[in-house]
Structure formats: structure tokens, C-alpha cells
Amino acid sequence: MANIKSQKKRILTNAKAAERNKAVRSEVKTRVKTAVKAIGSDDADAAIRLAIKKIDKAAAKGVIHPNQAARRKSRLMTKVNAAG
Fold this sequence. Notes:
84 residues, 83% helix
């Protein structure tokens, strides 16, 4: 454990940020899975829009890299287009 006051605070701040980031990443994964499962059904359009929105928001917050966001959206849309 650090004995410098600012470093102790930094450890707590980093832990909070890590927990938030973990939740956002999990949400993104869940929404993408839901969108992939919904392909071909009536609510597919809404699920895909929501997944893309969550991916974009995660990239905007800095949780995931912008290139990773682009790659995830691209792969999702490739699956959607392949399904017809």
C-alpha cells in the first residue's frame, strides 16, 4: 500500500473507474449478443441500434478504443448482412 496521500486517493479512484469500465464492457457484450440473437426477428432493428449506441458510448467514454468500437460495429453489421 502506498504511503503518499495522493497515491492512496488515486488507488481508490482507479478502482471506481475500473468497476465502471467493467460494467460498460459487460453491457456492450450483452447488447451485441442480444442483437446477434435477434437477427431475423421483428425486434432485430431495435436491438442492433441499441448495440451500436452502446458501442459508440463506450468508445466516447474511453472505455474501449475507437478502432475497437469500429471493428465491433463492422463485425455486427457483417453478421446482419450475411443473414439477409
